[in-house]
Amino acid sequence: MKIRSHRDLDVYKLAFEAAMEIFEMTKDFPKDEMYSLTDQIRRSSRSVCANIAESFRKRKYPKHFVSKLSDSESEAAETQAWLYFSLECHYIGNDKYQALNEKYERILGKLVKMSLHPEKWKY
Fold first, then answer.
1. C-alpha to C-alpha distance for 17 and 77, rounded to whole angstroms
2. What pLDDT, in 10s, does the model give residues 10-39?
3. Residue 96, SS3?
4. Looking at the domain that runs over 7-118, which CATH code has it been given?
5. Above 80 in pLDDT, residue 123?
6. What are the boundaries of each domain within the chain?
7. Residue 106, CA distances (Å) to 23, 71, 74 in order
8. Rounded to whole angstroms, how far apart are CA atoms 92 and 80?
9. What is the pLDDT of residues 34-57, one digit of tens each?
10. Which residue in 76, 88, 92, 98 is a FRET match for 123, CA 20 to 30 A apart?
């Protein structure tokens, strides 16, 4: 399959799926977390996708491509931190935490692999 858009990338699809899971999950968070934990975890999970999209458009410039992938990695790691807060605050159970954390580990792995071989993505 030819990759024509960032939406065709497996890492983007996985990150989007994870962000939507987080959106649904955080609907059940306490209202007093609306402008703190809820907002932060939604923002960082969505930012993973946004940075992947930006990196894809910058792929003809390897340094810019890798830089945006690095931003995406940072946002994925931030999301993992917020997931851990969610677990420790008892807003989510261990099963949900483990599943989402594993998904973000896969996302991070894919981003690192892309960063190590930017020449494969240049057009």
1. 16
2. 999 999 999 999 999 999 999 999 999 999
3. helix
4. 1.20.1440.60
5. no
6. 7-118
7. 19, 16, 14
8. 13
9. 999 999 999 999 999 999 999 999
10. 76
